[in-house]
Amino acid sequence: xxxxxxxxxxxxxxxxxxxxxxxxxxxxxxxxxxxxxxxxxxxxxxxxxxxxxxxxxxxxxxxxxxxxxxxxxxxxxxxxxxxxxxxxxxxxxxxxxxxxxxxxxxxxxxxxxxxxxxxxxxxxxxxxxxxxxxxxxxxxxxxxxxxxxxxxxxxxxxxxxxxxxxxxxxxxxxxxxxxxxxxxxxxxxxxxxxxxxxxxxxxxxxxxxxxxxxxxxxxxxxxxxxx
Length: 227
Ligand code: CA
Description:
Layout: E1 3-7, H1 11-23, E2 27-31, H2 34-44, E3 48-52, H3 60-68, E4 75-79, H4 84-93, E5 97-100, H5 105-118, E6 130-132, E7 136-139, E8 144-147, E9 150-152, H6 156-166, E10 172-174, H7 175-183, H8 191-205, E11 215-218, E12 222-225
Parallel strand pairs: 1-2, 1-3, 3-4, 4-5
Antiparallel strand pairs: 6-7, 7-8, 8-9, 10-12, 11-12
Helix pairs in contact: 2-3, 6-8
This protein binds calcium ion (CA).
């Protein structure tokens, strides 16, 4: 059973989420504040966390940072705030996806399925288990990236994007393919997410992130990995 931890202080929304998730076979724990969320995450080891950013006791971004200290569990952020600074801060802290309130339950459940699926691996092409460039290495079996002898810490979403790109060296992977595979959606308005995450990958992997050599943008089309 897939276990979800719902972190939300609005009891009506919690109730709606719990009913809908349980109806689809998820096991659900709910926490009304950040402290309870951190305690339950450690005790129950959920497969995915749905996290409201506006909590009574602490900022949701701090909950993400605390979780990322010890777990790569997918985190789907809920927020009434539309400010893109908030979104970027949550993504930077290690959130995997972001949905703005009010949202449709069907969309939330689709994102939830995608978040869980994202932790499963993509099929490997033989011979691509270890991808090496002059700057970094990507071990697709151990699921590790390294640079200058050190592990590069990647969030699950960053990892999934990188995994798809390096598994297709020299080939254009379209925005639609990436959105479908990583976020489970082909909504074209989410291409800004791709830009945010590719920029993060470049910061972590490219020698000169503003002039990428390895993670190449094909304007208006998609991205390409050049080994
Ligand atoms: Ca709230």
